[in-house]
Design brief:
With 132 residues, this protein is mainly α. It has one domain. It has five helices and no strands. α3 packs across α5. The N and C termini lie far apart (61 Å).
Length: 132
């Protein structure tokens, strides 16, 4: 009797618990939306600046821009007043994060160019999201 209960009850219990776990987080938190927004802005901006400068491919630039956007968002998450971002901080963090991401991804030949792209990403994020 014990094995019959295990064979019939446990699979349905597992299915019910998995369905509850996967359906419960239907709406992401607002902080996740902000991170995704900054990652998207960063990826799009870096693709455009990379195309203008003729540096790298679309996918590589999107990855660098997304990482830069996440870093700018993370740096602003450390501030006490999240509504009023600092333009200098956004540009500086963007430049540093993009230069570092370029080194990590193997684009070491143009570190200064990566920093310029990252500064543009930080500036774009600041302009588009300041006070939001």
């Amino acid at each position: 009797m014990n094995t019959i209960l295990k064979r019939t009850l446990l699979p349905s219990l597992m299915a019910a618990s998995l369905a509850g776990v996967t359906l419960a987080p239907a709406k992401p938190a607002a902080a996740d939306d902000q991170v995704l927004r900054d990652i998207g802005i960063g990826a799009a901006t870096n693709v455009v600046t990379g195309a203008i400068r003729g540096n790298g491919g679309v996918l590589g630039n999107a990855v660098k821009g997304g990482a830069t956007g996440a870093a700018v968002n993370g740096a602003n998450g450390l501030r006490r007043n999240h509504r009023h971002r600092s333009a200098v901080q956004d540009v500086g963090v963007g430049a540093g994060a993009s230069a570092l991401t370029g080194v990590i991804t193997g684009d070491r030949r143009d570190t200064l160019g990566n920093a310029v792209d990252g500064a543009a990403v930080g500036g774009a994020i600041h302009l588009l999201t300041n006070g939001k």
